[in-house]
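[Meeting: bench + compute handoff]

Bench side (C.D.) handed over the final construct sequence. Compute side (W.E.) agreed to return the predicted structure before the next meeting so the bench team could plan truncations. Sequence as handed over:
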Amino acid sequence: MFFGTDPLIAYLATSPGGVDAVAIIAAATKVDLGFIMAMQLSRALLVMFIGPVLSRFFSRNAVSI
């Protein structure tokens, strides 16, 4: 246990991939479904909002070879 979190909960909350598969696994086991879905949602929102900003930054500052 790390910070009082079960390893399965930590894995499901941070695992990349489809949220639907994570939700099915979480619903079938005895884990904190709300925490897992909140982490998956925050991960998806972070990618949607930070991804375009980072891609613009790297495309503008790319060095041509």
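W.E. noted at the follow-up: The two ends are 48 Å apart (CA to CA). C.D. will use this when planning the next construct.
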